[in-house]
TrEMBL record:
Entry keyword set: Cell membrane, Membrane, Transmembrane, Transmembrane helix, Transport
Protein name as annotated: Peptide MFS transporter
Species lineage: Bacteria, Bacillati, Actinomycetota, Actinomycetes, Pseudonocardiales
Keyword Flavoprotein: no
PROSITE patterns, A to Z: MFS (PS50850), PTR2_2 (PS01023)
């Protein structure tokens, strides 16, 4: 019996393969470190030096956070390619986790912008590589048609949200009680723990996780490595010469991801390897790609505009104690843990009567726009005067919008993918998130605590308008989808 078959028949982790515990753990600690760091990063960048921060202008600081998030999702595309062509998912995940830990150590120990530069690049590339491969390895633990598969993914996503919940609580506490560098240090310790337990249990993952699905011919490997070295050298040169700097980073990432997305679509649409029906389905994905990018440009403002809002406009006083800014980032994971099973059960119960995928995209985009309009009643209430309960309510709307669109996007990209471009279509879904996340930093540059109404009404209104346009286009999109629901 092969090791892969042994792994798939294993029931040592609550009836699931033992490897699931391993992946649950590494993903939980990665999300702990990722969201923990993200909870304190914006305020670290714009707090004054005497407050322990770097003293950047707020718009530059929020732009950097958005650009960084965009790079994570762009790296997920690169991580998937490296796993498919060079290393296999299991080794790519391991090296990605090491890179994340190095990044958090850099943030904790290196002073000033040097720590930010080295730290964020390592964490972004590492998180992208881990994000795209952990999910793929979970899939290898189950044989085709194994009834435990969906439950296994549910357990895995619980790990994601558990880490996302606890991370901001602990790093925020460390930051307020001791300082920013202890907060970043905690994220490094969390990732180290994840890496240790992952290393100890690598043998539980089986041979299938190590397979390289589409190996690059050895003659082209040197070319790939050479290309990567040239690219890294070019990026370092652009940063050192000041062509790419904190003030324009968000713009650069938006443009880079935008161009890559257009090229990806053109490569797929002009390929001779796809049939007429497949080409039609790829065309149907374009409006959903745009809606997804618009959605994430608002949703990911949890880490840019909402962070600044929490710091400067939210009343964080709880019984005479001031809640750390980053704790707001723990609200969304709680809502996801509670409501994801409910929404999933609702779609299952409705069966064929559930909304079509384009309709779910409409719901997600419109709800996301509405969430921003809900900030308007609190405009002008003064410094740190907005009620915490109101923001909790707004983040609840964020979550319901996310559950309508985010899981569906990944599923849709696999359904509409031409046979020859399966991975690339999943990459396009990640690129829509990357584009939107970078835009969340770009848009945040226009946000001002002193004049909020135009910002919230414009951003919210545009998202609702995009949702309405998508709704009007549904009959046309359904036709292009050629039978895919």
């Amino acid at each position: 019996m092969s090791t892969s078959t042994e792994v798939q028949q294993d029931t040592r982790f609550f009836g699931h393969p033992r490897g699931l515990a391993n992946l649950f753990g590494v993903e939980m600690w990665e999300r702990f470190s990722f969201y923990g760091m993200l909870g304190i990063l914006p305020i670290y960048l714009y707090y004054k030096v005497e407050q322990g921060g770097l003293g950047l202008a707020q718009e530059s600081a929020l732009g950097i956070v958005g650009a960084y998030g965009g790079l994570v999702y762009l790296s997920a595309v690169i991580g998937a390619w490296v796993a498919d062509r060079l290393l296999g998912s299991e080794r790519t995940l391991f090296y990605s986790a090491v890179l994340i830990m190095i990044g958090h150590i850099s943030l904790a120990l290196l002073p000033g912008l040097a720590g930010i530069g080295v730290g964020l690049v390592c964490v972004a590339v590492g998180s992208g590589g881990l994000k795209s491969n952990a999910t793929a390895i979970v899939g290898t633990l189950y044989a085709e048609g194994d009834e435990r598969r969906d439950a296994g993914f549910t357990i895995f996503y619980m790990g994601v949200n558990l880490g996302g919940f606890v991370g901001p609580l602990l790093t925020g506490l460390a930051q307020t009680e001791v300082g920013f560098h202890l907060g970043f240090g905690l994220a490094a310790i969390g990732m180290a723990l994840g890496l240790i337990q992952y290393t100890l249990g690598r043998k539980n993952l089986g041979e299938k996780a190590k397979e390289i699905p589409n190996p690059l011919p050895s003659s082209r490997r040197l070319l790939a490595v050479g290309g990567a070295v040239v690219l890294v050298a070019a990026i370092v040169a652009l940063v050192l010469t000041g062509v790419v700097n904190p003030n324009n980073l968000a713009d650069v990432v938006v443009w880079v991801v935008g161009v890559i997305s257009v090229v990806y679509f053109l490569v797929i649409l002009t390929s001779r390897k796809i049939t007429g029906d497949e080409r039609s389905r790829v065309f149907s994905f374009i409006p959903m790609f745009i809606a997804s990018a618009v959605f994430f440009s608002l949703y990911q403002q949890q880490f840019t505009v909402v962070a600044a809002y929490t710091d400067q406009r939210l009343n964080r006083s709880l019984f005479g104690w001031e809640m750390p800014v980053s704790w707001v980032n723990s609200i969304n994971p709680v809502f996801i843990i509670v409501f994801a099973p409910i929404i999933a059960a609702l779609w299952t119960k409705l069966g064929e009567r559930q909304p079509s995928t384009p309709m779910k995209f409409v719901l997600g985009t419109v709800l996301m726009g509405a969430a921003f309009l809900l900030f308007l009643p609190m405009v002008g209430s003064g410094q740190n005067a907005s009620p915490l309960l109101a923001l909790v309510g707004i983040l609840f709307v964020f979550t319901i919008a996310e559950l309508c669109l985010s899981p569906v996007g990944l599923s849709l990209s696999t359904k509409l993918a031409p046979e020859a471009f399966r991975t690339q279509m999943v990459a396009l879904n990640f690129l829509s998130i990357s584009f939107g996340t970078a835009m969340s930093g770009k848009l945040a540059e226009y946000y001002s605590v002193d004049d909020e109404a135009p910002y919230f009404s414009t951003v919210g209104g545009v998202a609702i308008a995009v949702g309405i346009l998508l709704f009007l286009a549904i009959p046309f999109i359904r036709k292009l989808m050629k039978g895919v629901h």
